[in-house]
Every structure is written in C-alpha cells, then in structure tokens.
Amino acid sequence: MTTERKSIFITGAASGMGRETAKLFAGHGWFVGCYDVNDDGLTTLKDELGGNAGLFQRLDVCDRAAYLDTIAAFGRATGGRMDILFNNAGIGLGGFYDEMAWEDVLRIVNINLIGVLSGVHAAMPLLKATPNALCFSTSSASAIFGAARISVYSATKHAVKGFTEALSVELARLGIRCADVLPGWIDTPLVSQEMRDHLPAEGLWRLSPPSAVADAVWAAYHGDKVHYYVPSELHDLDKLVTAQPEQTRDQRRRLLAERMQIV
C-alpha cells in the first residue's frame, strides 16, 4: 500500500503522451498506474521505471467489467486514493465520413468517448476520497473546429471537451477538479510519414514532443485552468474560431480542395 505517495491513473500509457506522463510523474515520486492494450509497451515502460513505480497492466477501456476491476486494484494499491485520473487512451482512424465503415465509426466512439465516460464513472469513489483530485482528459485541437477526414474523431474530442467543462462545474461540489488538454500535432506513432511531410517546422501546426502534453498534465494538477493547449498558441485559434466559424470553414474548404487537387 502506498498511502504516502500521490497517485495517477493513466490510460494509453504504453506510448506517446501517456508514456511521457508516466515518466514525468514517476520522476517526481508519484505512484503511476499505467494501462494500455499494448503489452510490449507496458513491459518496456515497467523496465524503464522499475516495478516499484506503480502498476503496469493491460486494460481495454471498452471493457466495463475489466475497467471496474482495474480501478479496484489501483485503489487497493494506493490506500483508496487517486490524485489524478488521466483519460488518455484514444485512436485516430480517419477518412471521409461517407466512406467509413460503420464498425470503424463505433470503434472510435467507444474508445475515445465511451472509454472516458466509463473511466470517470468507475473512478468516482477514489476521486471523491482524495482531496484536490483532478479528472484530466485528452481532447484535441480538432475540438476547436472539426477537422475534415477525421470527423468522428473530432466529434468525440468535442464531446470530451464539453464533458470536461460540465464536470468542472458539477464536481466542484465534491472537491474534484476537471481539465483537459487540446494537443495539435504531437510526435507519436499516430502521425504518419505522409502527414509529417506536410507539417511546417515552425508555427501553430508544428510537431510538438509528447513530453509537452505530460507537462500540461503536471501544470493542470498545480493550476486552475479548464483547457490546456499544446502548443499554447492554439488558445488564440480557439478564440478566433469561436468568433468567426464561417471564415475557418471557408479556409479549410479551400485547403481540402487544394490537397485533393480540385480547382
């Protein structure tokens, strides 16, 4: 039992943003619960951090029964505490919506949204029992304005953003804080080589390291914002899009047409 250590529960912990978050918090002495469907990634993370750093277990966030069992095991290991729940697991399947298989649509929704709803619901007893607990989720820059060819992904990330905002009001009565991160392009395996070839070296849509998201999680626990942006300039885009959504729509229509070589 590790009642003297703060604890964080991380889904999607085997690689990318989740992995960097686990490394950051473990480096600060936190107990890290690391969960993923990537068994090999969990094994190498455990080897890197050491078995005493926390728990490293397989979890499919779509499996409600497994999620409940995993939360219970985490609570036994931490003395009934959870300082941060980090809902980070997600997938990025894309394509034009009218050409997508319905099975892929449901898979995105089940992992990116239902998985978040399930995790928060299952973790609530531990969060309630922990003073100053934080419920933190990975949204996306596509929750600023829906991105073409990842429309379902965008929809789930808009939902996560709205869910976070609502809970930031609701759960205050229980002493639980809520926030999210809206990353742009992050250097993870989800970014294909084709995408990388089109990304600028500088500016708003540059490729950011996954450690920048880990830093956002750390800042959120010690701060009081609802939304954290990576890179931070995305905040200005959010304000602009809110004020002028039609301008953004028209710009993106032109960009999509250019990419498809349509005159």
Polypeptide structure, described:
The chain is α/β, with parallel strands linked by helices. The protein has one domain (7-233): 3-Layer(aba) Sandwich (Rossmann fold), CATH 3.40.50.720. The protein is built from nine helices and seven strands; from the N terminus they run βαβαβαβαβαβααβαα. It has helices spanning 16-27, 39-49, 64-78, 102-128, 151-170, 193-198, 211-222, 234-243, 245-259; strands at residues 7-11, 31-36, 54-58, 84-87, 134-138, 177-183, 227-230. The protein has a seven-stranded parallel β-sheet, with helices on both faces. Strand 2 (31-36), helix 2 and strand 3 (54-58) form a beta-alpha-beta unit. Helix 3 packs parallel to helix 4, helix 4 (102-128) runs parallel beside helix 5 (151-170) and helix 8 crosses helix 9.
What is the strand and helix layout of this fold?
Elements (H helix, E strand, L loop, with lengths): L6 E5 L4 H12 L3 E6 L2 H11 L4 E5 L5 H15 L5 E4 L14 H27 L5 E5 L12 H20 L6 E7 L9 H6 L12 H12 L4 E4 L3 H10 L1 H15 L4
